[in-house]
Write a structure and sequence with these properties.
Elements: H1 8-13, E1 20-24, H2 28-37, E2 41-44, H3 48-51, H4 63-76, E3 81-85, H5 95-107, E4 113-117, H6 123-131, E5 136-141, H7 160-175, E6 180-184, H8 188-197, E7 202-205, E8 213-216, H9 218-221, H10 239-256, H11 272-275
Parallel strand pairs: 1-2, 1-8, 2-3, 3-4, 4-5, 5-6, 6-7, 7-8
Bound molecules: 3-methyl-2-oxobutanoic acid.
The site of 3-methyl-2-oxobutanoic acid has 10 residues, from loops.
Length: about 280
């Protein structure tokens, strides 16, 4: 399927008309496959840190790592709206630094939008980046960069007080200029209320069917990340066992000399004796 690259206004226009899809990508090969499958948006998530770089959390991820991978995704998927995830402490210190770091995603990696985590405390950064001309996707609920503050990787907004706070934060982020809002790990009924109260689309992950769109970590969807799989993830295919089986077969074939066979070699067309002449 061939994509028509969407813009932030196109994503807003889909609200109430058509569900929105977003998947994570971290390299050019995957980006190419996801683009040809017709995903609306690709997110170079800071989940990069855990899924690809082997960190225990998203906190250590640097701007340099994000830009390096975002640029690779752009090369693989030139025709898909690309969202770069701003890593921890790249947007909290000052508006100036938030704009400069967001700008790197656009200038150095060719992104079309950035995403950042947080509620009221990040509204100033959202406004500053939007005013500088860059679309911002916000992210509330379970925010992995500050999961420690939230008591770990837990469902958020379960009681009336925290549900009320999340609704207020969602509205504040829309007011600050965000074009879309990721809702991570909140009850489906709360996600429905937030989605109905906002003019911008909500993109859910562990937030139920009423969101305006859905995002998943691609490696989870494909069964490629075995360290842990959140309960809200649907494994559309389980690739890891097949990959391990293929690699075991390669190892066996190399050890017993059955690979490479004639079919996978280049026959020499000269007399070996000629080399020693
Ligand atoms: O980093 C990421 O992949 C994300 C998504 C899970 C929304 O933030």
């Amino acid at each position: 399927m061939q994509n028509m690259k969407l813009s932030a206004p196109d994503i807003i226009a889909k609200k109430g008309v058509e569900k929105i899809t977003m998947l994570t990508a971290y390299d050019a090969s995957f980006a190419r496959m996801l683009e040809s499958a017709g995903v609306d948006m690709l997110l170079v998530g800071d989940s990069l840190g855990m899924v690809v770089l082997g960190y225990d959390s998203t906190v250590p991820v640097t701007m340099a790592e994000m830009i390096h991978h975002a640029a690779a995704v752009r090369r693989g998927a030139p025709g898909t709206m690309l969202v770069g995830d701003m890593p921890f402490l790249s947007y909290q210190l000052s508006k100036k630094e938030a704009i400069a770091n967001a700008g790197r995603f656009f200038k150095e990696a060719g992104c079309d939008a950035v995403k950042l985590e947080g509620g009221r405390e990040v509204c100033k950064a959202v406004r500053a980046i939007v005013d500088a001309g860059m679309p911002v996707m916000a992210h509330i609920g379970l925010t992995p960069q500050t999961a420690g503050k939230l008591g770990g990787f837990k469902v958020q907004g379960k009681d009336a007080q925290s549900a009320r706070r999340l609704l207020k934060e969602a509205k504040a982020l829309e007011e600050a200029g965000a074009f879309a809002l990721v809702l991570e790990c909140i009850p489906d009924g709360l996600a429905k209320i937030i989605s109905e109260e906002l003019g911008i689309p909500t993109i859910g992950i562990g937030a139920g069917v009423s969101c305006d769109g859905q995002v998943l970590v691609t490696h989870d969807l494909l069964g490629l990340f075995e360290k842990f799989v959140p309960s809200f993830v649907k494994n559309y295919i389980n690739l890891a066992p097949g990959i391990k089986k293929a690699v075991t077969s390669f190892t066996t074939d190399v050890k017993d000399g059955s690979f490479p066979d004639d079919k996978h070699s280049f026959p020499m067309q000269i007399d070996p004796a000629d080399i020693f002449k």
